[in-house]
Amino acid sequence: MIETAPASGFKDPLASRLGYLLRRASTVMMAKLGSELEGIGLRPVEATILLLIAANPGCTQSDVGRVLGIKRANMVPLIASLGVRALIEKSRVDGRSHALSLTPEGEVLRKQAEAIMDAHEQRFSGLLGPLSGEHLNAALRAIALIRDIEPA
Amino acid sequence: MIETAPASGFKDPLASRLGYLLRRASTVMMAKLGSELEGIGLRPVEATILLLIAANPGCTQSDVGRVLGIKRANMVPLIASLGVRALIEKSRVDGRSHALSLTPEGEVLRKQAEAIMDAHEQRFSGLLGPLSGEHLNAALRAIALIRDIEPA
DNA sequence: TATTGTTATACTCTATAACTATA
DNA sequence: TATAGTTATAGAGTATAACAATA
Questions:
Q1: Which of residues A93 and A70 earns the better pLDDT score?
Q2: A111–chain B Cβ distance below 8 A for any pair
Q3: Is residue B17 within 8 Å of residue A44, measured between CB atoms?
Q4: pTM of structure
């Protein structure tokens, strides 16, 4: 992502900013997870969808989108692709909505994805030492759950 | 970003994952910063470039790109736009590179951007309480600085 | 040979608007 | 009137390849 190291002595006034560090750290972890999931032919978003459907069998694609922060319109090609690959099944429950569930093949891939994601988490958590774990999770959750914060 | 709250009782097996929380938290902070910087006509990436040039007068656009993780090719329209708005100046030092610096107008806007970013940081740090500050920064920096981590 | 700046281009992610069919 | 799914489309952000000028 970065072509070469910056010239030494270069000042980075962003290096101490929470928002900037969150963005950079998230990019590093996502890029690494993406390359690890390539081996089983899934992108991170597809793996998270499989995990979510497994945890909530019978949910709709709108449910999934709401939890992951993905718009209904953008869920369509994601669900279609997982369906074409026979990893998920849709069954009509309503004239307008489908109940989603994993196929046996989807369950196999979900297990593999979960193992890769567990190892991925553990590797990064290990690098953080005592700072990781519930303290860090709680701090990030506090930010991630913010819907609105009063203006400056 | 999220249309409505997810159905209560919905399980989110991602909610405890560090990588997922980093991504969501970063999105929330970036979206908020973006809306706050709109008032002075800057995007977050443009504000960070102004801060970086101010801290390193005479640097090149390739230097800026290396520090921020932006490819040379993608720096071109960013620098061009800041130049057209007379916020930065280029002076040839080399047949092939330009030394960048802020114009007086650019310095005015940089000060405004920095004030907005300071308030933004403070507001989010305040929500995190004792978890924020150097401990959290160090943890995130440890992740953000990873270039390569041994494969699983 | 390597680097700076540049153009052109493509791919992903995200966003809105509008439509249908259902409830 | 509101919701689920869909289509089309537009805008960011990011990626590569290739080139000219220069070191």
A1: A70
A2: no
A3: no
A4: 0.93
Reduced to 3 states (helix: H, G, I; strand: E, B; else coil), residue A99 is strand
For position B27, what pLDDT does the model report? 97
A54-CA/D5-C1' distance, Å: 21
Asked whether the predicted pLDDT for residue A40 surpasses 50, the reply is yes
Q: Give yes or no for residue A7 having a pLDDT over 90.
A: no
Residue B26: CB atoms within 10 Å: 25
> 3-state DSSP helix/strand/coil percent for chain A, to nearest 5?
60, 5, 30
B151: nearest Cα among A43, A74, A32 = A32
φ, ψ of residue A86 to 5 degrees: the values are 60, 35
Taking the CA of residue A131 and the nearest CA in chain B, the distance in Å comes to: 6
Cβ of residue B73 closer than 8 Å to a chain A Cβ: no
Q: Which residues contact A129 (CB under 8 A, 6 or more apart)?
A: none
* Chain D nucleotides with an atom closer than 7 Å to a protein C-beta: 3-9, 12-18, 21-23
**Average per-residue pLDDT in chain B?**
91
D5 C1' – A98 CA distance, angstroms?
9
- Residue B89: its H or E element: strand B88-92
